[in-house]
Amino acid sequence: MFDVGWTELLVIAVVAIVVIGPKDLPRAMRAVGQWTGRAKRMAGDFQRQFNEAVREAELDDVRKEVSSLAKINPLNDLKKTIAKADTDLKADLKKVDDGIAASLDKPDAVNPVPKAAPPAAADPVAPAVAAAPEAAPAAAASPPPAPEAPAVAEPAPAPAESIKP
């Protein structure tokens, strides 16, 4: 703090002996020591009060953080996130369905005839004939395919352990 060397202390001691005198010097030194002690105690008290105020401010901040953490409910946040993802997914699926429906209504190379809504008939052949009218005469003229013959099961080979020489 103060840069006081030996030469400065020697000068101060000589001046104190000359001004105060050798007889009153011990009492003066004692008073100076008491004053410096009081100053150190005051500085220590001030530093302790300052540190205590800082600690209390930090504790208040910690209390506020803890109370804010107590209010957080991760389950509600998760529910909100899932609900948002659900609505986004449903919107995307609706766009895809609308796109497919729009592409089925327009004739193109893959779908030469636009698809019409199936009639409300109980006959399962009627929707296929109504959906593809040019294919209906050809389908009616050709004979139905022959049912496949059941496959003959081949006998399983005998395990190697059961054959003995």
Key structural traits:
mainly alpha, single chain, 165 residues, 5 helices
The N- to C-terminal Cα distance equals 109 Å
Main sheet record: none
Rg, Cα atoms, Å: 51 Å
Number of strands: 0
How much helicity do the residues have?
55-70%
| pLDDT averaged over residues | 76
Question: Rough shape?
Answer: rod-shaped
The number of helices is 5
**What is the ordering of alpha helices and beta strands?**
HHHHH
Which secondary-structure class do the elements indicate? mainly alpha
Q: How large a portion of the residues is in β-strands, by DSSP E? A: under 5%
Pick out the low-confidence regions.
Answer: 135-140
Describe, in plain words, how this protein is organized in 3D.
- By secondary structure, this protein is mainly alpha-helical.
- Among the domains are: 24-71; 73-105.
- 65% of the residues lie in helices and 0% in strands.
- It has helices spanning 6-20, 25-71, 74-105, 125-131, 136-141.
- The model is unreliable at 135-140 (pLDDT under 50).
Structural topology:
Layout: H1 6-20, H2 25-71, H3 74-105, H4 125-131, H5 136-141
What does this entry show, briefly?
The chain is mostly helical and 165 residues long. Among the domains are: 48 residues; 33 residues.
